[in-house]
Specification:
- By secondary structure, the chain is an alpha/beta fold.
- The protein is built from seven helices and six strands, in the order E-H-E-H-H-E-E-H-H-E-H-E-H.
- The chain has one domain: Flavin prenyltransferase-like (Rossmann fold, 3-Layer(aba) Sandwich), CATH 3.40.50.1950.
- A six-stranded parallel beta sheet has the order 3-2-1-4-5-6, with helices on both faces.
- Helix 1 crosses helix 7 and helix 4 crosses helix 6.
- The longest helix is centred in the last third of the chain and has 14 residues.
- The radius of gyration is 16 Å and the shape is globular.
- The structure holds flavin mononucleotide.
- Flavin mononucleotide binds next to helix 2 and helix 4.
């Protein structure tokens, strides 16, 4: 089983993070999950759901929600910069941040590593490991665009979740799946049980 860090920040479209987590677990991956402080607020604002901050309670929350005991889930607090994954010595395959706020992009692109998501992203860049960032904002201002360029130059991959029409999606779920496939295909993750465009 390979280990992946999933960072979830306080941008709109938490459904993208939720679907990613579910599929990674159902496909028997080891997932280190970090919700930023902002992500908890967006879950409450957009979905009226209060996600438990306590890590053990949060694992139970996701397990109950997905009704699966597959894979391995480790939840981390956003401010736990002493977590194993905050060190370059701890091996991971990759990190994906979905959805990613402009604030996080600004801080990571400028080497600021205050919370665990920022620190992990910093580690993935310094260790030359895969870092995929899926930004969510519209429109982008010049600072956003420059920060994303800087991240790209530092080795991160910017993959926005942009819906497709050529796949003729029949539902929002199908549209979400198409976008998630694009994210994880680039890491060579074979996600089964997903609607895939042929
Ligand atoms: C309902 C809601 C939706 C938001 N959507 C976005 C968004 O799509 N993109 C963004 O950059 N910020 C968005 N924000 C603002 C961020 O949540 C805010 O800047 C926060 O401080 C980000 O913290 P984080 O980057 O640590 O998650 C949203 C805030 C709320 C309450």
């Amino acid at each position: 089983m390979s280990s992946i860090v999933l960072g979830v920040t306080g941008a709109s479209a938490q459904q993208l993070a939720e679907r990613s987590l579910k599929l990674l677990l159902e496909n028997n991956n080891v997932v280190h999950l970090i919700l930023s402080k902002g992500a908890y607020n967006v879950w409450l604002a957009e979905n009226d759901i209060k996600i438990p901050i306590d890590t053990e309670k949060q694992i139970k929350f996701w397990r109950d929600r997905f009704r699966t005991d597959k894979g391995t889930l480790i939840c981390h607090r956003w401010n736990d910069v002493s977590a194993s994954i905050a060190s370059g010595s701890f091996k991971t395959k990759a990190m994906v941040i979905v959805p990613c706020t402009m604030g996080k992009i600004g801080r990571i692109s400028n080497g600021i590593a205050e919370d665990l998501i920022e620190r992990c992203a910093d580690v993935h860049l310094k260790e030359n490991r895969r870092l995929i960032i899926s930004p969510r904002e519209s429109p982008f201002n010049l600072i956003h665009l420059r920060n994303m360029t800087q991240l790209c130059e530092a080795g991160a991959q910017i993959i926005p979740c942009i819906p497709s029409w050529y796949s003729n999606p029949q539902s929002l779920d199908e549209m979400i799946d198409f976008m998630i496939v694009r994210l994880f295909d680039s890491l060579d993750y074979e996600l089964k049980d997903i609607n895939r465009w042929q």
